[in-house]
């Protein structure tokens, strides 16, 4: 199984790294949308979709590289 360096002295699998990217990017985007005053239900749907796309793209990119 391929692993990536986290920069904090340890390594995680690329699957876990992609999950971290998907969750953190979704959380930041949701906070931004709510700060703008957008509809929370619509914003939640949008960030779930975008988090899935970003996590998948990150995973595929790392998989190709390793």
Detailed description of the structure:
- By secondary structure, the protein is mainly alpha-helical.
- It has two helices and two strands; from the N terminus they run ββαα.
- It has helices spanning 14-35, 40-65, and strands at 3-5, 11-13.
- It has a two-stranded antiparallel sheet.
- A hairpin with a 5-residue loop joins strand 1 (3-5) and strand 2 (11-13).
- Helix 1 (14-35) packs antiparallel against helix 2.
- The longest helix has 26 residues, at 40-65.
- It is elongated, with a radius of gyration of 14 Å.
- The N and C termini lie close together (10 Å).
- The model has no long low-confidence stretch (mean pLDDT 88).
How does the SSE layout of this entry go?
Blueprint: E1 3-5, E2 11-13, H1 14-35, H2 40-65
Antiparallel strand pairs: 1-2
Helix pairs in contact: 1-2
Write a compact overview of the structure shown.
The chain is mainly alpha-helical. Helices cover 73% and strands 9% of the residues.
What is the total tally of β strands? Answer: 2
Radius of gyration: 14 Å
Characterize the overall form: elongated
**Helix count?**
2
Please give the largest β-sheet: 2 strands, antiparallel
Order of helices and strands: EEHH
What value does the average pLDDT take?
88
Portion in beta strands: 5-15%
Task: Output the strand order for the largest sheet.
Answer: 1-2
Class by helix and strand content?
mainly alpha
Weakly predicted, low-confidence segments: none
For the termini, the CA-CA separation is 10 Å
Percent helix range: over 70%
């Amino acid at each position: 199984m391929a692993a990536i360096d986290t920069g904090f002295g340890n390594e995680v699998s690329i699957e876990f790294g992609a999950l971290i990217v998907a969750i953190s990017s979704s959380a930041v985007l949701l906070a931004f949308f709510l700060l703008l005053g957008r509809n929370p239900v619509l914003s939640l749907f949008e960030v779930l979709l975008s988090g899935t796309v970003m996590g998948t793209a990150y995973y595929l990119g790392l998989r190709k590289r390793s």
